[in-house]
Amino acid sequence: MSHTSEWKARVYLFEEEHTTKVRVELDTGTTRLTDHGTARCNPTDKDVPEIGDELAAARALENLAAQLKRTAYGDMAAAGAASQRAPLAAYDLG
What we know:
94 residues; 1 helix; 32% helix
């Protein structure tokens, strides 16, 4: 079976007072997921906004990945394909 689809992702970054907040949105065409991540600059560290962006975005994407897995497990159970949920650690995100 051949299948092609396009998913759209958006990443929104907000920085204020040494804190970066990120909201990520994923639209699969059938499901919309949103999650968040935050990074704070230690007052003793040099303020490099790009690092805060990267950390906050990575955390938001990790949260979104876990949410997407839970959605997949629910869809599998609804389809009768799985009686038990596999542990999250069994799946490689990379």
